[in-house]
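Sharing a chain and its predicted structure for anyone who wants a worked example. Both blocks are below, sequence first, tokens second.
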Amino acid sequence: MTQLDSKFIRSQFPAFEEPSLNGWGFFENAGGSYACGQVISCLNDYYIRTKVQPYYNYPASQKAGVAMDESYRQLAAYLNVSEDEVQFGPSTSQNLYVLSQAFRELWNDGDEIILSNQDHEANAGFWRRLEKTGIVIKEWCVDPETGMLNPDDLDSMLSHKTRLLAFPHCSNIIGHVNPVAEIVSKAKTKTAGICVVVDGVAYAPHGLPDIGSLEADIYLFSLYKTWGPHLGLMVIKKEVMDELPNQGHFFNKHTIRKKMLPAGPDHAQIAAASGVARYLDTVYEHHFSKTVDQAEKGRHLKKLFQDHERRLLAKLLEWLRQRDDIFIVGPDDPELRVSTVSIVPKKKSIDEIFSVLTAKKLMAGQGHFYGVRPLMGLNIPLDTGVLRLSFLHYTIEDEISQLIDGLSAALG
């Protein structure tokens, strides 16, 4: 079985050569990952050589347009979707705000949407605001002990009035991976015409998903958490996009890339997004010899990344399970979750622990991370929140050991 070459992986990320970061263990990747060198190079090249309006006839403008087109083409291929189904926006939150406004124009008062309380607020708040306009909100609740969602709960919630179901691929606090394809199939079998929206922000950094196989109508994630520029990417099925009313300038209503953009696109950041695909190409070529298309490359790389992360995650969870002074949020089985682990200390404050971790050169996160509703569902106080420890495929075992040593010192 092919194993991840960590030395090669880290050579692709300039942050690991940065003197000011030397010796620091980075465990707040769920808030934003390091950018790979390919993305930085693409962004730098765009600003130096092609920082002009794209798609005009002069050479610099043509090159700018080609660079942007390449991002749509390459990322669509990795996500196993059509190029016309890929949309870039300023962030996932803003993409969802625009989507909620567009869908409301299609619905009638009394129509229903189902939202989970496992969601990051980006995939909950804007839909919930529609309640003030006459839309009925139904809440799919997590188990208050485990934080997990039960797909069977949807059987009594779905109705002929259900227009939309929104839930996360996994929570940015709980970490459990939801069975997306199963949930989508259940929803579409029981309710004709329902639209299923999946928030993949907390999942995609652990290996780009094969969105084409999930059958979700809309799938969203953040490129700045997926080794790339600060953009939100969303995939919208063509038949759904065709039905949605234009949210951009009236004269752009037939331009598919601008239909969901109230303002203009960020040309340079979109061009830089192709660096994510270039990075994946580079990693695939280093680890595998078989020639396959990018969708298949993505599947191999996701397994490669996740196998590495689970091996490290198993070590961390094994240590955490032995402690009687912390509570692990979500499942403690590395096969059921991503490598984003939230804990609640029982005997010391998170501030005390955080201070020690920082002194030990460990970068972690504390708070609610906009996952207010799952914390409420688990009865975890919002004023303290959780200590979140998140890592990606570029993390190495020595850093996990550093983290365990730091936690041991902090917890006492």
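Comments welcome. The first strand starts at residue 25 and ends at 26.
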